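Q: Please design a sequence for this.
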């Protein structure tokens, strides 16, 4: 009772004090302070305590008329009340609170009062945004923006955001009042949050005013364009947040869409240079396809579009006048047009391609015929158009036809010839025929078919209704194709059609000549050999570059070349089961050798190699098969922020599931019905589900035998998520045939793919509707027809497997050679798919390009054996491969990158083509894309079943003096642990990332020490070795150990095996956790890691002296065999078979391993001398000891270490050079001109500080050794990670070191975990250099300078 009376008394006291208009100011302040205290702590029931009508009447009056502290407390009370009971804000507004607070704020009498007014307006603006806008609050709060603290400035912008959000068009003048202050903020503020808010507010101003040209012109006059462009100049755009960038370009697009003046301003700022930088950056980094679309949208609005309204026509004329009056504006358009064409060709989404083509159409209509003819010569517009016309997307086809029509209108004679040569005419004919068929077949059903996503409104500056009809009518494409054919293509060309077929005939003739050359020995028809070589070189070097991709494909020249290289197996499946397998194998090898010599030889080193030209055309041809590689994305468009290692994903989230209703085929009597709905993972395939399904549908009579057999076949076949067997297909025989809506499902293709492609009519861009996950999808099953006949392909592979171990050359065991030999790509790829021929040839050519040394050397040895090469000094390889990046398809890379950005990729939303390309044609994908794929798929498998937090770590303490033993113990215990491993050193300061990174580097160095018995060149006993390291200028390769010995020079072989297993563990954990190893492994060892075979041609890569001798001896053996079987056998065989004019016996070689006399190649080898008769055995034994039996146990130990962490086979997608980058980081020095972009300066320093300028100059002057020491000192690793300084995380940061004594006596120190360099402000550059280099030397092997 006392509390109630006390409360009522307090309320009465406050109300009485506030009601007196001329009351005592001190008493009013006291009453308001009491009120504020009550309002601040009150939670509920304010309405029952205070008379609301009196409060809302008195407080605004006190704000407006009060003196001293009265308005401060009154404003605070309003803020407290509105924050406590938001609906009260409207009551306060009705009684003039907004006007009172606004006026007091503008008067800026007192900063405390101004801040309280801001607080109150913030609360009211959330409830009454329209009233606040109309009363000028937006402009008022911005008027004295610079007077407020940063935190209050953010309140100001929040108020502006509240009042501008979704305002009505009639309020645009009031909204525009705030624009000048917002534009000023873009030029004056450096705070990223403030910049983002200011841009967002300006974007809202523009959005509300977009319906009025007058209002938009008012915005244009405020120099908003100048402010935004200056914000982005000098790479400033890289420092802006994604939201800020999106806001800026959205605003620029809105302004450019209504104003020719803005267009002119942007041209004056050379906007296209900036756009080129940004588009190149985003397309190369695959960061965000939405940004590319946004940038292309701005470009579109800078060029006069084709609209019909009166206002738009006036705008078009005005924009066109702006552009054509300035030649430099035309040059800007030309400079970006080339880039836009490349983007359209390689982008992974049809929506972006469509936007690019619309822009190209506008450019074509704007520019002159001369301009377009020059463009055709540089970027080949005709080939580009033919590529796009081969796609299925109707929007892209329609706009591409419009571009074709516009070009023909500009210069018919010139473009009709180009269109015939490049296949545009053929594409138009094909489209016309297809559309006619569609018209007749689907005339009644067209409206019922699922239509593709409409792209017509993507470039509209104002968002259109989703219900608005597509602008492309049903018959629009047919009508346009018919118009082009009738008005332009029917007129024909003055150029003889015969000319377009001459190259095709030449290539066919070449195939015939090569076949004749290959089938006959050169000794019988040397003239044919010479003619063939000369003709081939002329064709490949002169005619191939001028041959269009269309001519190459249409003439079936690619098929003829495939038939030649495979010795007919590509055309004749019976050859895949030929009896003379050895003969077929040798013939294919012979043809590859001859073609490699032709395709990789150029007379002038500056000329492009024929192989490079051919590969470029095959890649272009592959890009015409755009729809063979669908991108399937979840409709929610959730994307992952990062796909880089270290990546840990908690598996507590539920994986997406597909619900399958299996139904027995009608007429199938041998199986039972399946009554349940089976939920399956997205990665599930018909072959993977059969193990669970078949036992439940077996008829009881055959359940025991059939089901048992199925279980036995399936046992032990578990695979990592997203990966199949190495050759891309399963070897398990299937008992069931599954189908969806009458279409047979391929065993290795996930269920979701054929279902979605069927639902979306075979489209290549598929967005999954949310309802898809709730539906039950009917799959029909029946028993697979059994065939007693063994397929030729299976029989052929069985023969190959049996012969595999007998083959000498590693080339013959490579998957590319098997592909060539059988004339068939691995796996169950559909041979009728348009991409099949191109993929086959690219796989063969890429393999040929990897083995030029093997092929050329083998050919040289054959010539030496047959007497065409007399001197062993001629056993030199003069051809070299083309760069690996020439095989990369930008289109497939972009599509895979786009697919990997989807959040469901980790759950198995991986189209089958992605898996196939990674496993069988990884060379078509960029290294960066494959690395991301590895990160996602391998980590998904590695973290399978993990329920702990992904940020958990396991800590381990090691002793630096016992580093290898501690590392071995740690990795044996925790090597396969899903948690991150964190290392600390005993008796040293430092913990976390820095010591852990340094640990990997230290252990890898420790494994290079002499006396371990691991590597070639280490012939030192443990007692004799000091702290020296194995010298391996060509990279480390295992030291052979004979099986007869368990120890040597005090080194136990079991210890050697343990060290190799440790190395395997170390490599696997370094890959998983993103650590850098400083271990220079040889290319041959990387090949072993990638499970590739080695032969004698690999020995020179790690031991040139031994390799040269072994190859020369091998050539001598071949010559001996040839002479022994030759009909023209010489009488003096021994004289013809001397080694460089020296008898073999005089070389005094015994059967011990060169460089390792303790290793006997045969029992009693030290007593057995090498003679002409035993030379073949000697060569074979040396090669076996060096590459196989002598190192097999070490290699198995190494591989087992990796396999205990993740499946070694998953590394096959990388090359040897790429594995070196992954393990050892970036070897190249950093780009000195980019240092400022990748280093932050903070806590006392900025980029203009004198000490920072000196520091950067010193870094630029560093040599390679100093750079390596600097990286080791600052990061703990010997090399920069993948991507160099740009990918260092956290970013390298230089801060000012606080020094207690004399600055010049201090040393720099580091925090390797955070990549912090604490740099004293030295008095001179030279002192800084001395101290820095001293710190690099002294702090290299410990953390005493941390």
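A: Design:
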């Amino acid at each position: 009772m006392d509390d109630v009376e006390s409360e009522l008394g307090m309320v009465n006291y406050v109300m009485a004090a506030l009601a007196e208009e001329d009351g005592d100011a001190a008493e009013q302040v006291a009453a308001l302070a009491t009120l504020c205290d009550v309002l601040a702590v009150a939670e509920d029931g304010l309405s029952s305590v205070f008379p609301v009508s009196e409060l809302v009447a008195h407080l605004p009056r006190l704000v407006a008329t009060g003196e001293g502290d009265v308005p401060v407390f009154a404003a605070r009370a309003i803020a407290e009340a509105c924050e406590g009971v938001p609906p009260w804000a409207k009551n306060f507004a009705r009684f003039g609170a907004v006007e009172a607070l606004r006026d007091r704020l503008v008067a800026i009498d007192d900063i405390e009062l101004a801040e309280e007014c801001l607080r109150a307006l913030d609360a009211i603006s959330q409830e009454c945004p329209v009233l606040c806008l109309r009363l000028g609050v937006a402009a008022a709060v911005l008027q004295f923006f610079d007077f407020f603290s940063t935190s209050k400035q953010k309140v100001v912008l929040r108020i502006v955001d509240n009042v501008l959000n979704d305002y009505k068009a009639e309020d645009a003048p009031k909204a525009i009042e705030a624009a000048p202050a917002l534009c000023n903020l873009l030029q004056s503020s450096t705070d990223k949050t403030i910049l983002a808010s200011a841009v967002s507010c300006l974007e809202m101003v523009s959005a509300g005013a977009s319906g009025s040209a007058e209002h938009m012109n008012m915005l244009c006059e405020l120099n908003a364009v100048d402010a935004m462009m200056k914000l982005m100049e000098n790479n400033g755009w890289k420092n802006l947040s994604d939201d800020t960038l999106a806001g800026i370009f959205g605003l620029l697009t809105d302004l450019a869409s209504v104003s020719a003046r803005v267009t002119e301003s942007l041209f004056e700022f050379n906007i296209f240079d900036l756009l080129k930088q940004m588009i190149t950056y985003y397309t190369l980094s695959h960061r965000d396809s939405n940004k590319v679309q946004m940038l292309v949208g701005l470009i579109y609005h800078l060029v006069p579009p084709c609209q019909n309204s009166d206002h738009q026509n006036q705008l078009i004329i005005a924009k066109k006048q702006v552009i054509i009056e300035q030649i430099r504006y035309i040059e800007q358009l030309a400079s970006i047009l080339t880039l836009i064409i490349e983007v359209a060709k390689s982008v992974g989404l049809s929506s972006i391609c469509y936007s690019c083509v619309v822009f190209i159409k506008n450019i074509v209509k704007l520019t002159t015929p001369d301009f377009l003819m020059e463009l055709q010569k540089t970027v080949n517009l005709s080939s580009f158009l033919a590529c796009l016309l081969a796609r299925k997307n109707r929007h892209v086809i329609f706009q591409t036809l419009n571009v074709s029509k516009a070009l023909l209108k500009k210069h018919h004679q010139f473009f009709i010839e180009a269109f015939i040569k490049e296949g545009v005419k053929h594409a138009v004919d094909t489209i016309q025929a297809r559309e006619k068929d569609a018209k007749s077949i689907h005339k009644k059903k067209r409206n019922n078919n699922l239509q593709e996503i409409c792209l017509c409104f993507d470039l509209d500056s104002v968002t259109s209704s989703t219900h608005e009809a597509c602008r492309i009518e049903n018959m629009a494409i047919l009508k346009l194709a018919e118009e082009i054919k009738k008005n332009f293509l029917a007129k024909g060309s003055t150029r003889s059609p015969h000319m377009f077929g001459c190259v095709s005939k030449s290539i066919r003739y070449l195939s015939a000549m090569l076949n004749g050359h290959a089938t006959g020995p050169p000794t019988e028809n040397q003239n044919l050999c010479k003619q063939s070589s000369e003709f081939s070189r002329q064709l490949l070097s002169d005619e191939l570059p001028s041959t269009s991709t269309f001519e190459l494909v249409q003439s079936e020249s690619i098929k003829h070349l495939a038939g030649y290289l495979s010795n007919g197996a590509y055309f004749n499946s019976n050859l895949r089961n030929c009896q003379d397998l050895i003969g077929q194998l040798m013939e294919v090898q012979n043809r590859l050798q001859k073609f490699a010599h032709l395709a990789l030889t150029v007379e002038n080193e500056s000329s492009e190699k024929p192989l490079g030209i051919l590969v470029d055309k095959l890649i272009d041809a592959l890009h015409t098969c755009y729809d063979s590689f669908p991108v399937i994305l979840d409709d929610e468009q959730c994307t992952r922020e990062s796909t880089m290692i270290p990546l840990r994903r908690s598996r507590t989230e539920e994986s997406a599931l597909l619900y399958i209703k299996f139904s027995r085929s009608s007429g199938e009597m041998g199986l039972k019905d399946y009554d349940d709905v089976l939920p399956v993972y997205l990665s599930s395939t018909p072959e993977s589900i059969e193990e669970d399904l078949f036992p439940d549908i077996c008829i009881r009579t055959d359940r025991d035998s059939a089901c048992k057999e199925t279980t036995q076949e399936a046992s032990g076949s578990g695979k990592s998520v997203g990966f199949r067997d190495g050759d891309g297909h399963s070897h398990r025989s299937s008992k069931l045939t599954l189908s969806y809506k009458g279409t047979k499902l391929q065993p290795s293709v996930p269920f979701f793919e054929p279902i979605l492609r069927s639902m979306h009519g075979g489209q290549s861009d598929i967005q999954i509707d949310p309802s898809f996950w709730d539906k039950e999808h009917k799959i029909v099953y029946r028993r697979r027809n059994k065939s007693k006949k063994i397929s030729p392909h299976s029989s052929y592979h069985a023969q190959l497997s049996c012969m595999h171990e007998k083959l000498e050359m590693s080339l013959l065991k490579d998957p590319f050679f098997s592909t060539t030999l059988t004339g068939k790509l691995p796996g169950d790829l559909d041979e009728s798919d348009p991409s099949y021929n191109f993929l086959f040839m690219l796989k063969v050519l890429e393999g040929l390009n990897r083995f030029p040394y093997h092929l050329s050397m083998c050919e040289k040895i054959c010539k030496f054996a047959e007497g065409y090469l007399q001197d062993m000094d001629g056993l030199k390889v003069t051809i070299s491969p083309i760069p690996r990046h020439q095989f990369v398809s930008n289109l497939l890379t972009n599509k895979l990158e786009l697919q990997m950005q989807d959040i469901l990729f980790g759950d198995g939303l991986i189209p089958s083509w992605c898996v196939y390309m990674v496993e069988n044609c990884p060379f078509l994908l960029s290294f960066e894309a494959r690395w991301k794929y590895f990160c996602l798929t391998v980590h998904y498998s590695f973290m399978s079943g993990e329920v702990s937090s992904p940020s958990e770590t396991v800590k381990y303490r090691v002793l630096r003096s016992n580093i290898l033993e501690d590392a071995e113990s740690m990795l044996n215990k925790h090597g396969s642990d899903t948690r991150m491993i964190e290392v600390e050193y005993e008796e040293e300061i430092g913990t976390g990332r820095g010591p852990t990174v340094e640990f990997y580097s230290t252990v890898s160095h420790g494994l290079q020490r002499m006396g371990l018995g691991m590597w070639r060149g280490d012939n030192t006993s443990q007692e004799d070795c000091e702290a020296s390291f194995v010298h391996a200028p060509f990279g480390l390769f295992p030291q052979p150990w004979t099986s007869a010995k368990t120890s040597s020079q005090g080194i136990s072989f079991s210890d050697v095996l343990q060290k190799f297993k440790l190395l395997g563990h170390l490599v696997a954990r370094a890959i998983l956790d993103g650590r850098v190893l400083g271990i220079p492994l040889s290319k041959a060892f990387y090949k072993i890691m990638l499970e590739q075979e080695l032969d004698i041609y690999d020995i020179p890569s790690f031991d040139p002296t031994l390799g040269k001798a072994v190859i020369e001896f091998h050539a001598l053996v071949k010559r001996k065999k040839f002479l022994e079987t030759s009909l023209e056998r010489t009488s003096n065989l021994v004289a013809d078979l001397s080694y460089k004019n020296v008898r073999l016996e005089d070389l005094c070689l015994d059967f011990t391993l060169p460089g390792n006399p303790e290793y006997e190649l045969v029992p009693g080898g030290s007593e057995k001398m090498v003679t002409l008769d035993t030379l073949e055995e000697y060569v074979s034994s040396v090669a076996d000891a060096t590459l196989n039996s002598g190192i097999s146990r070490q290699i198995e130990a190494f591989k087992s270490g990796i396999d205990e962490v993740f499946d070694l086979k998953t590394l096959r997608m990388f090359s040897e050079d790429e594995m070196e980058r992954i393990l050892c980081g970036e070897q190249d020095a950093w780009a000195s001109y980019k240092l400022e972009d990748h280093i932050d300066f903070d806590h006392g320093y900025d980029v203009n500080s004198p000490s920072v300028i000196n520091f950067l100059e010193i870094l630029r002057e560093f040599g390679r050794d100093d750079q390596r020491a600097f990286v080791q000192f600052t990061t703990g690793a010997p090399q920069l990670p993948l991507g160099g300084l740009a990918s260092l995380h956290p970013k390298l940061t230089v801060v000012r070191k606080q020094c207690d004594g004399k600055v010049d006596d201090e040393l720099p120190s580091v925090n390797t975990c955070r990549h912090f360099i604490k740099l004293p402000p030295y008095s001179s550059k030279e002192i800084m250099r001395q101290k820095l280099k001293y710190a690099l030397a002294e702090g290299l092997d410990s953390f005493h300078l941390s």
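Q: Thanks. Anything notable?
A: The mean pLDDT is 83. Residues 232 and 238 are 8 Å apart (CA to CA).
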